[in-house]
Amino acid sequence: MEAGKGSLDLEKEVLNEGLCTSCGACVDICPYIKVVKDRVAVIEPCGLAEGKCYDFCPRTPTDIAALDRRIFGKERSDSFLGSYISIEMAQARDSQVRSRAQYGGVVSALLTYAMDLGEIGAAVLTRPFNGGLMPTSAVAEESSRVLEYAGSNYIASATLAELNKGMKQPGDAIGVVGLPCQIMALRKMQASKHETGAKGVKLVIGLFCTWALSYKGFCEFLRGKVDPSSIKRIDIPPPPANILVVDTEAGTIEFPLDEIRGLVKPTCGICFDMTSEFADISVGMVEGIEDWNTVIVRTPEAERLIEKAKADGIIETRPLEETRLGHLREASLQKKTRAIGEIVRRTGDERDLLYLRLSDAERGKFL
Amino acid sequence: MSTVKIDQPGKSVLMMGNEAIARGAIEAGVDFCAAYPGTPSSEIPESLASVAEHFGLYAEWSTNEMVALEAAAAASLSGLRAIVAMKQNGVNVCSDFLMTVNLSGTKGGLVFVAADDPSAISSSSEQDSRNFARFADLPLLEPATFQEAKDMTKWAFEVSERVGLPCMIRSVTRLSHSRGNVKLGEIPERDRSARFEGVYIAGAFAPAQHSALHQKLERAREEFEGSEFNWYVGPEEAKFVIVTSGSGWFYSREAVAALGLDAEVGILKLGTTWPLPERFIIDHLKQATEILVVEEIDPFLEQNIKVLLAEQMKTLRPIDVYGARTGHLPGFGDINQDKVAKALASIRGLEYWTRDEGYAKRASELALPCLPPRMPTFCPGCPHRASLWAIKAALKLDGRNGFVTGDIGCYSLGAGPAGFFQLKTLHCMGAGTGLASGFGKLGQFGFDQPVVAVCGDSTFFHAAIPGLINARFNNSNVLMVVLDNGGTAMTGFQPHPGSGYDALGRPAPVVEIEEVCKAIGVEVKVRDPFEVDQAIEDLYDMLQDDGARVMIFRRRCYLVESKEKVRKRVFVDSEKCIGDDCGCARFCSRVFNCPGIIWDAGAKKAMIDEVVCTGCGVCATLCPSGAIVVEGG
After folding, report:
1. How far is A275 from chain B (nearest CA, A)?
2. What's the CATH number where B478 sits?
3. How many angstroms separate the CA atoms of A10 and A19, rounded?
4. Contact present, A313 and A324 (Cβ < 8 Å)
5. Given an 8 Å threshold on Cβ–Cβ distance, is A29 in contact with B590?
6. Interface A-B: count of C-beta contacts within 8 A
């Protein structure tokens, strides 16, 4: 984490290069940086040479090993999946939760449970569809509202901005659910010397992510094909289906993934993290089983919560088969290799990995 | 009590030049006044509107200057006396009608006041409207004193009726907006009725009409030869004569006195400057060998005099003509006694300083550091500041190098720091929308920048509607933002068709801007610019659409709003203010820069200047720390 850079550097190195993930870490800190939909912009330079915006951004230089040490107390044992204690399959016991959720309902069930236990008082969440294609983020302060935010949308929203707004009124311990880029930014916020609402975050649930779509591009793609306000669920089934499935009130429509790939945000092409490696718990799909999740438990606090949830009948777990674990590792490796390749293509220098600060040994694994 | 209605003939009253013109119209028994506001002309119709009920005359604010002239011409064609007043840009607007009503002719006295703004103090252009008199073959009068402003206006109605043409009066800011003593005349008993008869069709045998027009102008010339508004002062048979008109008269007299040249230099002051009173001028230049022509803006008189001198080569001796062409006077901008004296001194080989040069230098050195830098800015509480911030933010978020085409109104200041330098073009009324309709059709040439046209509510009615219709008709990609503050704010908040009251303050039907837009068939949204984040998001969304679209940012001018409402107290909670730190960096006092917000450099906190603050509270919604508090919400 380099010190001494500010909003103009952020604009030059990240925004103008199309590398913004629209995670929201730089938004609502100040009046100068704004977000609308998934577009972030520096409206006017603030004049300060150094700022939180640059410090928090997941696409400004980030020392991966230092973040690992800070969160997990050690460097990663697994170069492909990051630090973890266990990897299992899990699902919410409550079938109603599962029916609202994208897959197994583990995220919604755990959050609700953590709020009911009083471990967190509020959760920063993202509502996938809110009358349109654009997801919206909000702070849920009652566990009964968590389910409203269940489900995934393949567009990134500036969810972390809620923490910057929240900074003005510090409150309870907070839980956050986010994409890998958001989780990385959140951890950078927590590690920052600056004051931030992220310091009150006690539970970090990360989602698996391969890429996100540009709002504008996807909107234009769907125009005339799907009414965005009727969308109930969007999903990408595991290979070899190679399709994007849109469930609407009027029925289900499938689009070949090859038509969608051009709409992927360019920044996703340089993303090194598929499984939210800096989360307390990472949650994703299980290949081929619709109503289960893959759950990577990374911190002792998370392990304790999971065990307690199991004991209280909130979730149930099963071991993840070796072949599925193998596929997960392979997918993660693929994303990393692709990202490093793209970064080197951009910089023309194998030692210059833009935002990624990796040890020579780690870097060598993906070149 | 309005000075224009004092019914005491012979009494001397202190009057603004524009009031004197209005009084002249009243003394001529004017029946009808129509105008569109424009500095420096607005007080003429305002003065007449203020006494309209008293005298039973009709006064209106028209949607634009052309409509005003046409409406006034209708009164003239019905036998009434009518006056129109406008700034120089307005003359351009109504020029098409002017160039045809001269052919059709008029009946009742029709007086056309063009108030020019030398140095463009309140204008986007500097122009000399006298050229239009020559262009349209119309009689032209130029008052030089406040008394003349009144007397000439009264006489102009008679000239107009005698020659059957509109009679033009050219004023300038110095005359329109200064005050001087005027001796009042009688206010006539009014007994007139309107009736239209006859045929007034321009273009029926236009060349014949044009020829007849020249004959009418010859009649005006004959009348001008004996006019009391042309005179000569100075030594008999002066070799050096200043020829001047309008504001040049006072400056010339002072300059001659300052240089002690009263015994050598004569001044030929002309009040009727088109067509020129040729015999009168030749009579007074018979002994002259040098003349200096003193006038404001263009060398109009100078060139016409030169033509006359060329024609009189055999009657007159050779005369050197000094003025703008010789570089002795500027030929642009306003003039003053100093400039005239310098010209005179230079021609005569005299030394002249208004003040000792060392003194001037010392004064500047002492005074300048004490003056705070003051950029032209929006008033405290002005909705335009928030609107332009929202536009800037939306364009920046959009990221396609979008830009704003500007228009004429308070928001023209958006070209500078007050509006975050957002306006990239600025021309005349309605030009922003017309330009935008063109930019929006350049896609086939690789143009991919979004275009935002801003225009005020009054400007919308005045000249922007055709541009919007053009954009709709030709399916141009334009986002028009109407900055609707409820009136013609820049010129003094005169009403317009959307205001709901007329020139006399009586209730009037409202023409809703959004209804006009809907009828044109464009998407239209209305938002409060003080809900800044919402305004930014909605503008951003509209920028993503194609075709012609309209966003109306509606919030009343706070100068008016604050007179009607109890002002809320706004203050800074200095505990919460983070000042220079990351997260703010003095946004309110440095960037948003409302004059009501001050930076306390000692305490490193923002402060509200409670004398200046209007209590609008928009800064409280923008403060990132919640440090600005509006008392009572």
Report:
1. 30
2. 3.40.50.970
3. 10
4. no
5. no
6. 68
pLDDT tens, position by position, B469-509: 999 999 999 999 999 999 999 999 999 999 999 999 999 99
Look up residue B370 and give its two tokens: 């004490």
B385, B392, B397: best to mutate for the A interface, most A CBs within 10 A: B397
Parent domain of B452: 383-560
Residue of A nearest to B388 (CA): A43
For residue B88, the Cα-to-chain-centroid distance in whole angstroms is: 6
Residue B579: closest C-alpha in chain A: A30
Residues B18 and B163 in one domain: yes
**B181 within some domain:** yes
Of the residues A36, A42, A136, the best mutation for testing chain B's interface (the one with the most B CB atoms within 10 Å of its CB) is A36
Q: Does B112 touch chain A (CB under 8 A)?
A: no
Nearest CA in chain A to B620: A31
Would you call B131 helix, strand, or coil by DSSP? helix
| Residue B362 located in a structural domain | no
Tell me how close the Cα of B417 comes to any Cα of chain A, in angstroms. 12
Question: In this structure, are residues B629 and B620 in contact, taking their beta carbons and an 8 Å threshold?
Answer: yes
ipTM above threshold 0.90: yes
**pLDDT class for B633, splitting at 50, 70, 90?**
low
Q: What SS3 class is residue B464?
A: helix
User: Which pLDDT score is estimated for A105?
Assistant: 96
Partners of B537 on chain A (C-beta within 8 Å) are: 36
Q: Which amino acid is at B339?
A: K
**Cβ contact (<8 Å) for B587 and A30?**
yes
| pLDDT tens-digit series, residues B295-322 | 999 999 999 999 999 999 988 999 999 9
Dihedral of alpha carbons B587, B591, B595, B600, sign: positive
Neighbouring-strand partners of residue B479? B452, B549
Q: Which residues contact B215 (CB under 8 A, 6 or more apart)?
A: none
Whether B239 and B183 map to the same domain: the answer is no
Do residues B472 and B613 both lie within one domain?
A: no
pLDDT of residue A3: 55
Q: What is the pTM of this model?
A: 0.95
Cα B501 off chain centre by: 22
Q: In Å, how far is B460's CA from the nearest CA of chain A?
A: 28
Chain B residues with CB inside 8 Å of A37's CB? 540
CA dihedral A327, A329, A332, A337 (to 10 degrees): -100
- Predicted pLDDT at A1: 42
Cis status of the peptide bond prior to B40, with omega within 30 of 0: yes
Does A165 contact chain B (CB < 8 Å)?
no
Given A29, A39, A46, which is nearest B399 (Cβ)? A39
Q: Cα-flanking dihedrals φ and ψ of residue A275, to 5°?
A: -110, 20
The CATH number assigned to the domain holding B249 equals 3.40.50.920
- Distance set, CA A38 to CA A52, A128, B28, B244, B537 (Å): 20, 13, 67, 66, 11
